[in-house]
Amino acid sequence: MASLAALGVALVAAGTVCLTSGCSTIGYYAQSASGHLALVRAAKPVPEWLADAQTPPALKARLELSQRIRDFAVSELKEPDNASYRRYADLQRGAAVWNVVAAPELSLRLQTWCFPVVGCVGYRGYYDRATADAFAHDLRAQDPGLETSVYGVPAYSTLGLLPGDMFADPLLNTFIAYPEGELARLIFHELAHQIAYAKGDTVFNESFATAVERIGAQRWLAEHASPQAREEYERFDSQRRDFRALTMRYRDLLDALYNGPGSEADKRSAKATLMRDLRAEHEALKRERWGGYSGYDGWFARANNAAFGVLAAYNGLVPNFERLFEREGRNFNRFYTEVRRLAALPLAERRHALP
Q1: What single string gives the DSSP state of each residue in 237-249?
Q2: Predicted local confidence at residue 164, as pLDDT
Q3: How many CB atoms lie within 10 A of CB 249?
Q4: Read out DSSP for 276-342?
Q5: pTM score, two decimals?
Q6: For a 10 Å CB count at each end of the chain, is N or C smaller?
Q7: Cβ proximity of 188 and 79 under 8 Å
């Protein structure tokens, strides 16, 4: 599941960035500020949508479900009880923002950009797809060896740092129709970013939120979902597990190749072979296990080092956080207290302290 944990918080510093880092990126901050403001201004409290006779019945049902999930996040997962995901907006587009990521031809290390408040992150987000594509094009023009990826993000978190209910993260048309289990996962994930945030450590932040979403979704489905919703989730999650296993295996193979011996020419040739094998295995999965499911076709068609780099950020430390949750007796408050303690440590100490 995609998330943009830090972009919105850059708005906090948008008014003063020119004073500290020059004006060359002021256009980026301006589009961030105007894009986020347009998004939250489009949102209305869920009760208003439910009371409006013009709201389609199917949307009303999803909004009601979202509020039950939101209440569960507070009562059972001990996530923040605030205005986040209590408002809804139809953006009339398919993504909240589009992320641009980039990596060298023979490396999986994502290029990073640094911002006030949130530190350095491995992406830049844009509220307009054409602007995101143009930025990716400019990156490749500056460095022809760079591989880029542009992908839509259904939701992002402002970490709960912006004041007032109006600025709270809203429900969006980009994900409100997700299957029940997926909707729950997304809400749990984004709320987790408000609990703990390690400045400049995307892998820590996203892996923590992914661990919370998995644990939370399992509880929600077991306790509140219908058998049909559980069956739907298991089918989708089975495909996701297959996707994750396949792509992380090839990510490890590529990483070993890039960091191993051999000339650049040899590595390019071996890389091409690995990418062919990857796509062939995906086709076999579709044929033999997925019944022809094509939901991941776009990812495999565009797969490159940048796309692989993103995967690691969301999954790299999830097993560590799951072990930490078990160590803390499956108690969410104790778990969050320890995660916040870890987030405050220097990076090397933080990694060493994770079980």
Answers
A1: HHHHHHHHHHHHH
A2: 75
A3: 12
A4: HHHHHHHHHHHHHTSTT--TTHHHHHH--HHHHHHHHHHHTTHHHHHHHHHHTTT-HHHHHHHHHHH
A5: 0.87
A6: C
A7: yes
pLDDT at 4: 39
Sole residue written with tokens 């918080």 = 9
Tokens of 142: 């500056």
The reported pLDDT for the residue numbered 14 is: 36
Q: What angle do CA 124, 69, 343 make, to 5 degrees?
A: 45
pLDDT average, residue stretch 225-250: 94
Segments making up each domain of the chain, as ranges: 7-353
Distances (CA, A) of 339 to 7, 34, 279, 324, 354: 21, 33, 37, 9, 9
* DSSP per-residue string spanning 13-26: GTTTHHHHH-STTH
* Structure confidence at residue 5 (pLDDT): 36
C-alpha distances (whole Å) from 85 to each of 101, 156, 195, 256 are: 27, 11, 15, 42
pLDDT at 8: 42
Torsion angle (degrees, nearest 10) of CA 270, 276, 280, 281: 40
Report residue 91: phi and psi, to 5°.
Answer: -85, -10
Measured CA to CA, the distance from residue 300 to residue 103 in angstroms comes to 17
- Which tokens go with 185? 């996962």
Segment holding 171, helix H or strand E: strand 171-172
Greater pLDDT, 235 or 117: 235
Report the C-alpha gap between 150 and 50 in whole angstroms.
35
Looking at the DSSP bridge assignments, the partners of residue 152 are 98
Amino acid at 32: S
CA-CA distance, 206 to 81, in Å (whole number)?
Answer: 21
Share of residues in the chain with pLDDT > 70 (%) = 92
Q: Using DSSP, state whether 70 is helix, strand or coil.
A: helix
- 3-state class of 137 per DSSP? helix
Q: Work out the angle at residue 19's Cα, subtended by the Cα atoms of residues 14 and 24, and round it to the nearest 5 degrees.
A: 70
Q: How confident is the model at residue 18 (pLDDT cuts 50, 70, 90)?
A: very low
Please give the helix or strand (H or E) that residue 145 lies within, else none. none
Residue 137 CA to residue 148 CA, distance in Å, equals: 8
